Amino acid sequence: MNPPPQDLPGRLIAVEGLDGSGKSTQIYLVKRWLELEGYKVFFTEWNSSLLVRSATRKGKKRQLLTPTTFALIHCTDFADRYEREILPLLSAGHVVLADRYIYTAFARDASRGCDREWIRSLYGYARHPDLTFFFDVPLETALNRILDGRPRLKYYEAGMDLGLAQDEYQSFRLFQGRIYQEYLSMAPEFNFIRIDSDRSPEVMHREVRQVISQRIDLPAYRWRSRNP
Amino acid sequence: MSRRFYGRGLPGVDLALLRGKLIVIEGADGSGRTTHTAMLRDWMERSGYATEEVGLKRSNLVAAELDRAQQGNTLGPITQTLFYATDFADQLENKIIPALRSGFIVLADRYIYTMMARAMVRKLDQDWVRKMYSIALVPDAVFYLDVPPKVLAGRIFRKGRLLDYWESGMDVRRTGDMYSNFIKYQDQVRSEFRRMRNQYGFDVVNGNRSPRVVHRELQGKIQNLLGI
Fold first, then answer.
1. CATH fold of B15-226
2. CB contact at 8 A, A130 and A74
């Protein structure tokens, strides 16, 4: 793919990690912080394109997806958000916050047995974030957080399509374990900033804010004039 | 000819078991592609060959959703390319491969090349598209029905239909009226097909002749291929 533009005026911050790692809470707190301080900020989350979502939902509900089409449909969803949300807002000089980014696909699709190189080439149009936070929590803690709070697991979420185990909880554990390994092996290559997530939200958030303040020239992203 | 993928292909497919034949008819709207696919199918079934038909936007997974997404004219070129790839992969895994395994002749009313040509005209990276379709099987034969754009437009109007937004490349250029855009866009697509001709071993068939004459030529070529 043509090298994605890295020199856009905006800044891109992504959070990655297992379900139950606390990443969504943290990116929400970052969004609130930047908004309330008067910065130009835009938030986008995984699997939320209006154009593609109904197809994904149908595919999941009727269990029509294979590892290959699962990968492609999520890449399509991401592309729609990339072309219509992420890229224009980066060009306009916003701070774009992404709850999950391409590394989610790299980890999940590789865990489903897709060719790693193929997956990466599919996402070749996407630029890498300026900062990627990896919320690292012991696998057991993440599993307990999810399995305590939401006992009904979805088919693909639990990795039931892989036939790892008959029991959906067991399957979820094995599948999340694979994803966790994928994250760990990607961490150095993509400069993940590891945040120890076995701590309280406000303690973690202090660290996240500190990194952002150090690494991004935030004053450049302030709205010039406030609305009256 | 032994069966192979364009690239790494799909995981878990035993190519040696794909006994059938894969025959592709490519060409623009109005090139007679659909007519000839139907005529070939009649002829083959009359001769006792079992056939399966595939084509663009015919997957269970996303055909309706892709169609709906195209109504809004907000679909970006990367998203559209990936949406079509999802549609293709679903048919590859659920129709083409099972049919070939059962010894059917699969007739593809367009295959991956149309999407490649469209992506090229939209200035997307060729290598990106090629890698995306590295999951595709190499067909036994590809026939490209070559028809000058003016003749295509004439045929479309004669059927009482109007020019399609995407087939007129209205997302690529908006400088002229729809007719002149259609001609220019189809000219570009045509040169992309000519460029791919040697690389992918297309058989270019002059489609600017009567259906009977074109059919006879296709029949003769396929007879050689099938040894009938």
1. Rossmann fold (3.40.50)
2. no
